[in-house]
Design brief:
The protein is an alpha+beta fold. The chain has one domain: Glycosyl hydrolase domain, family 39 (Immunoglobulin-like, Sandwich). Helix content is 21%, strand content 29%. The strands form two sheets. A three-stranded antiparallel sheet has the order 3-2-5, with no helix packed on it. The radius of gyration is 17 Å and the shape is elongated. The two termini are 23 Å apart.
Length: 86
């Protein structure tokens, strides 16, 4: 688990977390499954864009003491991005 002090320190704020992994947003794997086309059709391009947008989305909440606790179990090779709380 990671504990991060948020820049604004506001308790209860939601922090968007987006996960890219084998099952969520993996455009390279989707392209490979298409047969690795060099010249994409419009349909293939649209499918790849949809895949890229299919990230695992969740909201993490800043605790009452202004600390964001991150306790995520990630599969191998997964990455998570956090956005500034709004």
């Amino acid at each position: 688990m990671a504990r991060l002090q948020t820049p604004d320190g506001r308790p209860g704020r939601d922090v968007p977390a987006r996960e890219l992994d084998w099952d969520h947003g993996d455009v390279a794997e989707a392209w490979y499954r298409m047969g690795e086309p060099l010249d994409l059709t419009r349909d293939q391009e649209a499918r790849l864009r949809a895949t890229a947008d299919d990230l695992l989305r969740r909201e993490l909440t800043v605790s009452d003491d202004g600390v964001l606790e991150i306790d995520l179990e990630l599969p191998p090779w997964a990455v998570v991005s956090l956005s500034r709380a709004r």
